[in-house]
Design brief:
CATH superfamily: Metallo-dependent phosphatases
Order of helices and strands: EEHEHEEEEEHEHEEEE
Shape: globular
Number of strands: 13
Number of domains: 1
Strand content: 25-35%
CATH architecture: 4-Layer Sandwich
Radius of gyration: 15 Å
Distance between the termini: 9 Å
Helix content: 10-25%
CATH class: Alpha Beta
Oligomer: single chain
Number of helices: 4
Mean pLDDT: 93
Strand order of the largest sheet: 5-6-9-10-12-11
Largest sheet: 6 strands, mixed
Structural class: alpha/beta
């Protein structure tokens, strides 16, 4: 199953210079935050497959006006073609008024509330976030620091994948598109876009 993951920027390869063959075979779009509604609308229209998303730290408008044609999976579990996805958007709190910002304690509480739904679903295959996990693709400054809660979730549930955004490729030299967590989870930074092949189930 091909999954298109996107985050943070309106990638010209998918927007200004869109070609249908670029997304051929994609069966699901996963948006990891900080994308303009018009861009997501365009992708939903052109690729024409189910779309799920979490909110980024700049997506306060999505609270009042969710993206039409897409499903917000904040604090929820979503099942698709044999895979269980769970969403925890937002970033580390660096602005007291930010609606999509959380302290480590707040994110840990969100994960705890999500735990019964993951158990009911029989486990977790894909963790979808905006921010990265601590020490796995994050940066040292507070706005781009990752959550240790996500490390604990990967250790506990051992999902096959974690998709996130928030850390742009031009922020530092060592920003990698894919890394592997100690738990075995493949961590994919969706900045711009990637197409990930999940084994069919």
């Amino acid at each position: 199953m091909k999954v298109l993951i996107v985050a943070d920027i309106e990638d010209k390869r998918l927007y200004d210079f869109y070609r249908k063959e670029r997304t051929e075979g994609v069966e699901l779009i996963v948006a990891c935050g900080d994308l303009k509604p018009d861009y997501l609308d365009f992708l939903i229209t052109m690729v024409n497959v189910p779309t799920i998303y979490v909110r980024g730290n700049h997506d306060d408008r999505y609270i009042k006006d969710p993206v039409w044609g897409a499903e917000c999976i904040e604090d929820r579990v979503f099942k698709f073609k044999g895979y269980t996805f769970a969403g925890l958007g937002g970033s580390m709190r660096y602005n007291p008024d930010g609606q999509n910002m959380y302290s480590e304690k707040e994110m840990r509480w969100r994960a705890a509330k999500l735990a019964p739904r993951i158990r009911l679903a029989g486990g977790l295959d894909v963790l979808v976030t905006h921010a990265p996990a601590k020490d796995h693709g994050d940066l040292e400054d507070l706005p781009h620091r990752g959550f240790d809660t996500f490390n604990r979730m990967m250790e506990k549930y051992k999902p096959a994948y974690m998709f996130h955004g928030h850390v742009h490729a031009n922020y530092a030299r060592n920003v990698q598109a894919q890394t592997t967590h100690e738990s075995g989870t493949l961590i994919c930074n969706a900045y711009g876009y990637q197409i990930i092949e999940l084994p069919d189930r």
